[in-house]
């Protein structure tokens, strides 16, 4: 049976009964469906080990990883009976290092397990972005459910490991996460994902058109109150229910100028939690359907591959652009702004519609402070004033050299196949099964599969 597994990425998650039956027939065997089902279970257990053993070896594996990668942080908790596995978290030393070298922008999200592990918990992941906008999942935890208690526990682990306190985060409005961020990181600024907000508006019956979604995005990116009122009036004219729904959400958590006023932190021009969504895609089905020991092992392997790839990327940049030390995405942004300079209305660093303060590194458009990188108005003013452009931003942190240093860190994803102690006293957690919902005509059906859900077009 192992002959057919390479075509299924050495996983039985995509290996269905039909594929097994056809494979057996090609070898002259004809078996019943019940036998095929037992074969699939047997193959999976042989490849990834028994579920119980995977939980019982996890602590020993974490200890080995910490020895091989000093300064990593891990934690495993048991239930009140001191016997049943409750939750586990591992923050590798390379993840701690990367989080301190990247933007002050952290994403938190939960992703359900898949396959046979579907009802055994949720992965909580913390992500960040480097200065070339690459996403890095730097911390991972396995918890039974996504709620306040587990989010608070995970965020506390992240805080203890990284020492971070003040940053911008963006997520959906999951109640447990909102309260936990406010308590664990009181100095941080929490933005709500606009995609989730607009989807909630659609569920309320106020179906948004493409233009209306664009208007809401413009509201979220408003530089001042006048701009916001203008965009809101446009939305209220076409979809008053949507405007009223947004009025009930605290503006400091989704409107740019109000967020900056309240928290004094940049939004980095991001209005959705796509950072976390990208992390879920990066994790992939194989990791999310693996047993705990295999899942964390895959995470370490993927993280090691990611850092190696980024080191190679940095080396290629240095060869292609020896005349510039700015990371490519910012170099392109700077070149675009220089190419499309607007005319000056009069002397004194006044753009046609913006006021620029070069010494204070601030522009009335708000984008310089919001993105920690000069806007087109600042560049226009600097060139007219004879100021060097590299003085307008942190040329050290945004350099290729800093990018290389971000990913130049020794990390060894030790194989899980080494001899590991088995904690036979540890019991595996019970399956997390949702309560049946009763409607007027009997039990309500569960949620539709993702591929059957109707999706609104993304106007972001």
Automatic annotation (TrEMBL):
Residues 447-460 have a biased composition (Basic residues). Coiled coil: none annotated. Residues 354-386 form the SWIM-type domain. GO terms for molecular function: DNA binding; transposase activity; zinc ion binding. One of its GO terms (biological process) is DNA transposition. The keyword Membrane does not apply. Keywords: DNA recombination, DNA-binding, Metal-binding, Transposition, Zinc, Zinc-finger. It comes from the Eukaryota. Residues 438-460 are annotated as: Disordered. InterPro entries: MULE_transposase_dom (IPR018289), Transposase_mutator (IPR001207), Znf_SWIM (IPR007527). This is SWIM-type domain-containing protein.
């Amino acid at each position: 049976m192992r002959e057919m597994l390479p075509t299924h990425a050495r996983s039985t998650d995509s290996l269905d009964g039909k594929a097994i039956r056809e494979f057996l027939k090609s070898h002259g065997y004809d078996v019943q469906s019940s036998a095929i089902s037992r074969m699939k279970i047997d193959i999976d257990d042989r490849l990834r080990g028994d579920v119980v053993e995977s939980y019982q070896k996890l602590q020993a594996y974490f200890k080995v990883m910490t020895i091989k990668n000093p300064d990593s942080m891990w934690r495993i908790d048991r239930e009140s009976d001191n016997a049943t596995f409750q939750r586990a978290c591992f923050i590798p030393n390379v993840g701690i290092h990367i989080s301190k070298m990247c933007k002050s922008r952290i994403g938190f999200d939960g992703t359900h397990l898949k396959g046979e592990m579907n009802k055994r918990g949720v992965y909580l992941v913390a992500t960040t972005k480097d200065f070339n906008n690459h996403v890095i999942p730097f911390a991972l935890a396995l918890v039974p459910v996504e709620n306040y208690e587990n989010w608070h526990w995970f965020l506390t682990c992240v805080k203890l490991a990284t020492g971070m306190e003040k940053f911008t985060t963006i997520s959906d409005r999951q109640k447990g996460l909102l309260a936990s961020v406010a308590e664990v990181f009181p100095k941080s600024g929490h933005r709500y994902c606009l995609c989730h907000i607009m989807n909630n508006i659609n569920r309320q019956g106020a179906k948004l058109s493409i233009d209306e979604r664009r208007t809401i995005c413009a509201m979220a990116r408003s530089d001042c109150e006048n701009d916001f009122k203008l965009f809101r009036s446009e939305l209220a004219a076409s979809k008053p229910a949507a405007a009223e729904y947004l009025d009930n959400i605290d503006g400091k958590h989704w409107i740019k100028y109000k967020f900056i006023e309240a928290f004094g932190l940049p939004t980095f021009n991001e209005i959705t939690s796509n950072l976390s969504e990208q992390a879920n895609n990066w994790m992939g089905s194989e990791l999310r359907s693996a047993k705990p020991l295999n899942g964390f092992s895959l995470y370490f392997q993927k993280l090691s591959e990611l850092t190696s790839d980024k080191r190679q990327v940095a080396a290629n940049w240095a060869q292609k652009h020896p005349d510039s030390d700015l990371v490519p995405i910012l170099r392109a942004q700077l070149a675009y702004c220089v190419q499309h300079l607007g005319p000056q209305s009069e002397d004194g660093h006044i753009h046609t519609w913006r006021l620029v303060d070069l010494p204070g590194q601030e522009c009335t458009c708000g984008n310089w402070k919001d993105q920690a990188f000069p806007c087109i108005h600042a560049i226009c003013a600097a060139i007219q004033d004879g100021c060097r452009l590299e003085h307008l931003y942190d040329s050290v942190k945004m350099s290729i050299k800093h990018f290389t240093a971000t990913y130049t860190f020794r990390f060894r994803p030790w194989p899980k196949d080494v001899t590991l102690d088995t904690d036979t006293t540890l019991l595996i957690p019970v399956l997390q099964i949702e309560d049946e919902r009763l409607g007027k005509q009997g039990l309500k059906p569960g949620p539709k599969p993702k591929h059957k859900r109707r999706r609104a077009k993304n106007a972001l």
